[in-house]
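Person: Please work through this fold.
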Amino acid sequence: MPETAPANADAAANLVTAQQTVGEALNEVMSTDEFDKADIDTRKELVSGALDDMQEQGYIQEPVYIYVFERGSQFDILSSVPNTFMYVSPLPKEILRRYRLVQIPCADVKHTSKDMLIYQSSYRLSRTDQSFLEELNGVIAAIKNERRPAMRESILTIPITDVFEPKCGCPICRIRDTLEQHTIEYIMGAAMMEPDVRIETNKAGFCKEHFEQMRACKNRLSLALMLQTHLQELQKHVFDEKKLFETREGKNKKTVEKVSKITCDCFVCNKIEWGMSRLMNTVFELYGKEREFRAQFAEQEYICLPHYKMLMKRSETDVDKAHRNEFRTACNELVKKYLDELEKDVSHYCKMYDYRNTGKDADWGNSKDSIERAIKFLTTR
């Protein structure tokens, strides 16, 4: 009889899915850190192996599967094809972050798997085999430690803890910039061809700033196709030829109202606002529950003025009373400390234009980029 050695712990009801842009998979589970059967039924499962074997195992039931024989491409497919998932053994955090994936427990799915090392009873493990198993056990131990972090992570908290790890600039600006980048990548990618997304972009359009960011992307055809249907939407529902030249006051007023709504609307801005409101809920929840996150928050470089205003206003209702004063004190200290440093740098920059401070040995200190830093502090941009 062959002997078996478990290569890792049971992966009972764990699935991995894309940590997609705002408006997609991440947003669908904003209120939970678990998937249930209803969530899974709306997605396509990625399975690996020979097609005949899958048929024997009863995998093929409905046309909602993507079959992959070469396992090296499975993570690329998960990260690029919307609404896909696969059942996996526990994965290291490094792999999940590299492919922008999240691993989520499934509460009511009876799907257990185990990786096994199988060899004949007469076989004796070589030194290389032993080294492989030692390395494998080390990975298993690392995964187990990741699953029991000091600060509990879930699909909700990972985007926040990733943003707060670096101590550079305003963390709320980094959240906004991350959402903006992901949304631009999303809309310029495969989502551009999804009917429900195109309906939204046709109605809302984009602001000038996000039009410029989209134009800077390599895929100009995607932008042209979205512009084409957006302009057709204007022709059909705003500037209908039968109504354009009618002189009645009410018709013209409605047309102006429609144009005003479109010029003030933006698909990307809407998605950022939607995502920010939910991610900020997670920030406030983490601050109230996790002591380590409170320390991480206080260690940030600064908070810009617009986001300081937003944080202080929302703290009245979204931060629990036990930590409200601590939160406001931390915000005040971050703003005041950076404001003092910034004022000194800008003042030093002005003094460097005095003729007494010229020359090749002039000491500019940290003042050379003080103008740009001051603008970003005052405006978030």
In short: Strands lie at 3-6, 14-18, 44-48, 65-68, 84-87, 101-105, 116-119. Residues 1-13, 20-32 have pLDDT under 50 and may be disordered.
